Amino acid sequence: MRKVLLIAAAALGCMMLEAGVPACAQDFSKAKIDVIVKATTSQYWATVFDGARAAARVLGVQIATLGAPSELDAAQEVSITENAISAKPTGIVIAATNAQALAEPIAAATKAGIPVVVIDSDANTDQYVTFLATNNETGGQKAADEMARCVKARTGADTGKIAYLTALAGAQSLNDRDKGFLEGLKKYPGLTIVEHRVGNNQPSRALSDSEDLLTRHPDLVGMFADNELEGDGAGTALSEKGLGSKVCLVAFDTSDTEIKFVRSGIIDALIVQNPYMMGYAGVWYALAAAHGVVFPKYVDTGVSVVTKDNIDSPQMVGLLDPSKYVLTPFLGVQ
Amino acid sequence: MSGGALSRPAEEEARGAFLAELQHRLPLETYVLALTVLVWVLLGVLSPYFWTAGNITNILRQVSIDAILAFGSLFPIILAGIDLSVGSVAGLAGVVFSMLIADAGQGLLVAFVATLAMGIAIGVINGWAIDRLGIPPFIVTLAGLQGYRGLALLLSGGETISGMPAGLQAFSLSSVAHIPTLFILMAVIGFGAHFLLAYTRLGRYMYAIGSNAEAARRVGIRVIHVTTIAYGLAALFATISGLLLVARLSMGSPTAATGSELAAIAASVVGGASLFGGRGTILGCFIGALLFTTIGNGANLLGINSFWQMVIEGLLIAFVVYFDNLQKRRQAGMG
User: Total domain count for chain B?
Assistant: First the structure.
């Protein structure tokens, strides 16, 4: 990740000697990058925009932040992309709401000579510069490791019953997380999956499901929740039942409620993505690609594990609250 | 001996007649209640955890918020109308309430009263648009389903709102004499709604309008007033359930209660309400909501696949409505 960014910077003739202070040999103020996300009404995508704006400041380029108000509105995202292509921007950074629907517009942009950097969610085409995303399977495996670590710390052995909660059926990123989690858990044969529940992306449903799970399996040692809404509900169930110190809870993504639960010891580990870096590096890559730099087809933005012990460390603070993201020298990559 | 042989069919016939008579008299709620009890007994046998104090408390808490929403949606259904906006109104109410507290720094009471007032206003607008402007209820509340959810997303920027006072969640978890406060609250609201429907002139007018709006108008019932009150109550109840959801989760979420309008309608219908109007009771509505909650709880306790759970719920709705129709046809035949 960092190496790729450094290559991009070298190609553009940019250096960053101090945090957030650009030193580019060229003037990029004429360059314009369109950043198109899945939904403009969500914290996650707002963080992507924050990262993109930071990169725009560093590079001195203009950016436009675009997207449909609600996720899953593929038709609208297609129109937005088509409109963007007609305006001939220097580059496009885009997250595909639907892999199939966005494949054609992305290929069309590439054909029109506009470099496209796909972030977060892939499209069914290879007509783009690079795909910059979280490896959700790796994230799931990290969750399994955290689960084993927590169970071992609590009980002295890595054995016991585990349940996992999927927020929504049919979402690729969630399926990958679950797959990684199950895969990762195979390393710990003492930990057995006894239950799997699929919710409707509502914390209230996650709460009832978790309550019932805890009723059915009084000897449960661990729960994995694969997004923040599911984590909110599972955490609420544990805190209601006073089981925070008995059942290990590992959850994906961040929310205010989840952070509160990490501090109070209800959630033992959060697996967090880095949407800020998707926006930040996305803009860098798009500009560099417009100047002829060739990138690997896939770049992993990484996942981090947040626990009670490291939640206040400088690296994690920026991941949990993008307004506090500290761009270090050397392009803001730690 | 021959007398015994003769009397046997006669006896059976008499029993058959008795059963038919019973079936004729018992309302649908009785069967749904019997089905619910059967599910309870079955779950008690299949899961050692079903009849535990903890699990019963869970069920009572889980059913409360859904039942209040279902009670509200019953009023328009009795009028042969429908309110598709209740889920969105609940979501909007949660957002407004939690923003008043977290962002505007208002006290609980101010936020509570202001949100209730907003809920009632929404319902009055719905009722007015339906009766005065003559727009079908399905359309008016479909617009609400979309519009109020949009407002909730707009106001909150699509984010969840945290920072609720700890007392709010503590309230949602409290119990009085081992019965969850949420359940008691639901019961009080239910009794109020039942009294209104069964024992007041207004309630009887609602059934009259639902059975035959034109006849009701001709005998001098002020249909617009009754309609406005019915949709006002639907939105008010939706608002209350939205507030309780905030208390339960200690946060406001703009997507809270998405799709719950259909669950509320399903509870009413399974509880004996007719979408053609004029029929439906609060008790039936409660039993319907309880049955769905029990199925959800049972599926979790038995580890039944979540997708099968949806299929079972779908079959249940189809079966109950079919059974209801069958019974009505039989009654019509006998009448």
Answer: 1
SS3 content of chain A, % helix, strand, coil (to 5): 45, 20, 35
pLDDT at residue B3 greater than cutoff 70: no
Task: List residues bridging with A66 in a β-sheet.
Answer: A36
Both A67 and A117 in a single domain? Answer: yes
Residue A224 host element (H or E): strand A220-225
Instruction: State residue A298 phi and psi, 5-degree precision.
Output: -140, 130
Asked if B162 reaches chain A (Cβ–Cβ under 8 Å), the answer is: yes
Residues A140 and A267 in one domain: yes
User: Same structural domain for residues A95 and A169?
Assistant: no
Q: Does B309 touch chain A (CB under 8 A)?
A: no
Q: Chain B residues with CB inside 8 Å of A259's CB?
A: none
Question: In terms of domains, do A39 and A155 share one?
Answer: no
Tell me which chain B residues have a C-beta less than 8 angstroms from the C-beta of A240.
Answer: 173
Q: Nearest to residue B86, comparing CAs of B269, B287, B237, B191? A: B237
A97 vs B212, more confident: B212
Q: Cβ separation of A43 and B245 shorter than 8 Å?
A: no
ipTM score here?
0.72
Task: Please tell me which of the candidates B154, B258, B306 has its beta carbon nearest to residue A202.
Answer: B258
Residue among A40, A46, A209 whose CB faces B300 most closely? A209
Structural domain harbouring A159: 136-272
Contacts of residue B259 in chain A, CB cutoff 8 Å?
200
Of A169, A215, A260, the CB nearest to B54: A215
Select from A272, A290, A314 the last residue of a domain: A272
DSSP string, A66-127: EE-SSTT-HHHHHHHHHHHHHT--SEEEE--SSTTTTHHHHHHHHHTT--EEEESS--S---
CA distance A272 to chain B (A): 17
pLDDT digits (tens, 9 = 90+) for B128-145: 999 888 899 999 999 999
Separation in Å, CA of B158 to nearest CA in chain A: 5
Cβ B251–A232 below 8 Å, yes or no?
yes
Cβ of A216 and B300 within 8 Å? yes
Q: Measured between CA atoms, how close is B77 to chain A, in angstroms?
A: 26
| Residue in chain A nearest B54 by alpha carbon | A215
Residue A32 sits in the same domain as residue A103: yes
When mean pLDDT is compared across A8-17, A71-80, A232-241, B183-192, the lowest value belongs to A8-17
Confirm whether B24 is domain-assigned. no
Identify residue B38 by its one-letter amino acid code. Answer: L
Domain shared by A58 and A84, yes or no: yes
pLDDT at B11: 65
Contact at CB, B162 and A256, closer than 8 angstroms: yes
* CATH for B286: 1.10.3470
Residue A229 domain flag? yes
Amino acid at B203: G
Q: Write down the pTM of the prediction.
A: 0.78
A124 located within any domain: yes
- A interface with B, Cβ–Cβ < 8 A, is 39-43, 46, 69-70, 169, 194-195, 197-204, 207-209, 211-213, 215-216, 218, 229, 232-233, 236, 240-241, 255-257, 260
| Beta-bridge mates of residue A15 | A23
Asked if residue A15 belongs to a domain, the reply is yes
pLDDT score for B236: 97
Mean per-residue pLDDT over chain B, rounded: 88
Residue B61 CA to residue B266 CA, distance in Å, equals 19
Answer for the pair A178, A166: CB distance below 8 angstroms, yes or no. yes
Task: Report the pLDDT value the prediction gives residue B5, as an integer from 0 to 100.
Answer: 47
Through-space distance between the first and last CA atoms of chain B, rounded to whole angstroms: 38
Q: Which domain holds residue B146?
A: 60-324
